[in-house]
Amino acid sequence: MLKTNYGVDNATLANISYAADDDALKLMHWMPRLGEDNILMAFRKGVGELTKFHRQVIEAAQDLSARLVIIDTAADTFGGNENDRGQVRQFVQHALGQIVLKIDGAVLCCAHPSRTGLSTGSGDSGSTGWSNAFRSRAFLNRPEDDEEQDTNARILTRKKANFASIGDTIKLQWRNGVIIPNNPATPNCFRKPVETIFLSLLETLIAQGRDVSPKPSPSYAPTVFEKHPNAEGFTKKAFAREMERLLVTGRIHVETIGPPSRQYKRLVITPPEGAL
Hints:
The chain has two domains: about 10-180, P-loop containing nucleotide triphosphate hydrolases (Rossmann fold), CATH 3.40.50; about 195-270. Helix content is about 30%, strand content about 20%. It has helices spanning about 10-15, 50-65, 75, 85-105, 115-120, 130, 195-205, 220-225, 235-250, and strands spanning about 40-45, 45-50, 70, 80, 105-110, 135-140, 155-160, 170-175, 180, 250-255, 265-270. The radius of gyration is 23 Å and the shape is globular.
């Protein structure tokens, strides 16, 4: 865990800055690979071949039930010619696209802009395929119109989006090792993890005497949770996936109750080990 010069780890600072719970980053997993071969796709006569490391990334993401994989950076993981549009598209569509499909989630690929990309403000580098192949692209840089020359000022600009407007910006500040919005009063910049919401809703409904079922029915937990005002935008599909994960890990379990003639199954939270 990285430490700041104040003796506080970055995760704690991030949670404070984003008004998030202390455990908001507990599901994050790092794969430090300094000094190792990090190529995800190599090329032979223009044809991309997925590497052993690519398979390891997918397996690790699946073991962790990850929904977001961040690749840092493209220069470390792309084993081709960045100016070759065909090779770039193979990498984005096949190497990164396969990760997306396997985890049923998303991939964020970081890349450094070229000098031209910096001077023009486009944030581009290499072939246009880098921008064209992705669904969206954002550029993080220092604001050009900063009269006071605040070296900690940053601005995040949406340069491309298939399903949103282009040119939207967010003003940010680099502070104590954490990039935060200029408006520190902005609460809950990130939603709580789906695990937190699922367990909170289950606990609330149990306290209210409202049983929810692990099987599709009017009381099916994912369906009930999606409609709850505290669902924080998570869908039935997201809750169903999380329910399966929590059952596998033992955080929740299925309990059979009722008389022999009218038994039914409900979800309950597994008590901590050693609890009465």
